[in-house]
Amino acid sequence: xxxxxxxxxxxxxxxxxxxxxxxxxxxxxxxxxxxxxxxxxxxxxxxxxxxxxxxxxxxxxxxxxxxxxxxxxxxxxxxxxxxxxxxxxxxxxxxxxxxxxxxxxx
Length: 106
Fold this sequence. Notes:
The protein is α+β, with helices and mostly antiparallel strands and 106 residues long.
């Protein structure tokens, strides 16, 4: 099966809980969204805040990538992030992981 690529949206503290526990989580731990993933798929996270329900936003350097990404070419692209798990094109995934300097991205 061909790998698919995903952007998970979760607060930084929830991402770290999953990393430390060896699991992924989005949508407050609901199983449904992650059931779309298969072994070998790529997952990267965007954390809008440091803590769940936090009011201080984290600022990702997205501006430099926006003109290159398929995700941000759609009107109201930010609305898709509310779903918690967004499918990415292979191109977007590899642009983002390169910008993050991920050495082991599939």
